[in-house]
DNA sequence: GCCAACTGTTGGCGTCGCCAACGAATTCGT
DNA sequence: ACGAATTCGTTGGCGACGCCAACAGTTGGC
């Protein structure tokens, strides 16, 4: 018999806040990905931004979602192929594409909204509603601090 | 003048707990990566595991760190080249490699310990010590819940 | 002795975030 | 008004991270 290798993570890692944060994020992210099914987080983010901003340039959408221009292009390509989004040259500024959600796009977005909300429930099930609020608040403050530093 | 595009994220995303979690994790992860400099999280994790477990097989190290066997191989290759770790065939079980930290490895690990601790300070600076404890606790519970579900 | 399981290794895949370069178009500075 | 700087979309690429499949060598159970 070989010595049971003690699957426990090393002490330094087990208690490391940054590791706890990134690993938990990965777990939750996995749930989200499953929930989104055929879509990725980029797709959902862009559709949400398009819905709330109305007709907007790709740059505006990317900035709103905090994603790189090149990634916006790729994700919008996907959404265009699926007919969820339309790109049109902005006549007022011919560098820009005006992006709008189609009817199918709005329907898909609502569907995803439901799936995403359902995932949030499952993701934080060990926490009470109060605790979820506390967690969100703490994360928001850390997030904001690092975001402000550009 | 073009309409200021309002860089604010869409409402649905701004308040989405899973997004808050993953984005904050990414910010902190970036700090960690900077702190580790020439090393990656895999390297630090494996060295920590090797230090705490003593001579161990790659499988044991990988299991302890929660990483895939193939990723263990790659990371140990790096560490071996840098002379921080030694691989030796286990005479008792010739399938296994016994992995041990070298003197240089121990020194490097201590150096990294310091850098990592310093990063933890900076990462969560907007939180009081109490709040950091609360955050760690909440994350640990969520993490444990999803980990137990295998 | 045989079959199942484990070990290390190679090679590959997908997501995510990021960066560089480019041409076309627009805005700014003077 | 005109050249310089900037913006926009696009393409192509990179690194980190997590994961999976296959394979040969080895070991264990039965």
UniProtKB/TrEMBL annotation, chains A, B:
Q: Does the keyword DNA-binding apply?
A: yes
Instruction: Give the Pfam families listed for this entry.
Output: MarR_2
Q: Which residues form the HTH marR-type domain?
A: 14-144
Q: Which UniProt keywords apply?
A: DNA-binding, Transcription, Transcription regulation
UniProt superkingdom: Bacteria
Carries keyword Transcription regulation? yes
InterPro entries recorded:
HTH_MarR-typ (IPR000835), MarR/SlyA-like (IPR039422), WH-like_DNA-bd_sf (IPR036388), WH_DNA-bd_sf (IPR036390)
What is the protein's given name? Answer: MarR family winged helix-turn-helix transcriptional regulator
The beginning of the lineage is: Bacteria, Bacillati, Actinomycetota, Actinomycetes, Streptosporangiales
């Amino acid at each position: 018999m070989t010595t049971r290798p003690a699957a426990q993570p090393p002490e330094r890692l087990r208690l490391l806040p940054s590791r706890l944060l990134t690993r938990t994020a990965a777990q939750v992210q996995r749930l989200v990905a499953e929930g989104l099914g055929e879509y990725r987080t980029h797709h959902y983010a862009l559709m949400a931004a398009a819905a709330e901003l109305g007709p907007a340039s790709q740059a505006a959408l990317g900035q709103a979602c905090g994603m790189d221009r090149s990634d916006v292009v790729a994700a919008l390509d996907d959404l265009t192929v699926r007919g969820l989004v339309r790109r049109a040259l902005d006549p007022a500024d011919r560098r820009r594409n005006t992006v709008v959600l189609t009817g199918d796009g709005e329907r898909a977005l609502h569907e995803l909204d439901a799936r995403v909300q359902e995932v949030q429930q499952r993701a934080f099930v060990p926490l009470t509603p109060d605790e979820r609020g506390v967690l969100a608040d703490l994360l928001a403050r850390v997030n904001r601090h690092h975001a402000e530093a550009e």
